[in-house]
Specification:
The protein is α+β, with helices and mostly antiparallel strands. It folds into two domains: 1-33, no CATH class; 53-236, Glutaredoxin, CATH 3.40.30. The protein is 36% helix and 22% strand. The strands form three sheets. It has a seven-stranded mixed sheet. A two-stranded antiparallel ribbon has the order 1-2. The longest helix has 23 residues, at 214-236.
Amino acid sequence: MASTKRILLVLLVVLGPGAIIYFISKTVSNHFVELPYLGYSYTLDAQGNKIDSVAYSVPDFQLTKFDGTPINRETIRGKFIVLTTIQNDCPDLDSCGLNVFHFNEIFFHKLEKNQDNYGNVRVLSILTDVNGNPTTEISSRLKDEMAEYSKSGIWWMATGDVTPFYNFNYYGKKFIDHAAAPKEHEIGTKAYTNSLVLIDDKGFIRAVTGAKTDTHIRNFFDMLKLLKKEEFDAKRN
């Protein structure tokens, strides 16, 4: 036990929280370590006591890929969705909620090269302005910048309403209402514009991190690994 604690401390100091998640997922039975379900809503009795709860599941939605292909709830069924927003001035970091360079190097490149393990994972980026307002006007700059990423069919870029994806309860209010943190170089007014959200194959929200730093993106990939381990264990059992 003391040895394990020392390893966890070293991992935390050197590699950050994501390493802790990955270490635990590899060394502790998955019956005890799982990503949480986020966005619970509660039913209260007359005295205000919680009598029931349900985790947030993405409701019906309608999006349109840049090539005109529709995306809806059935389209993502059975897939793990890595959700981001995307802006017309991306990959310019001062105008983009996602650090495209780090995301490609740390995350997307691994998905492409390891389809045996991540074949049911899709990246879904919804076009908004810097303040998270949806827009249908796609700039030629963005089309050109993202053309290479979309060739594989793993990264979907789309237009449409973001509300069904971000309208879950998070630390006392809806995630869609949380404010951005300019001190952390987040753009615009909304935190969700600068976020990565992990949706499991049944439509439940399982993880949220920032999307601007390499540390956030690395930690998010570790969370995806943990979720995939959960899937593997479920199939094995």
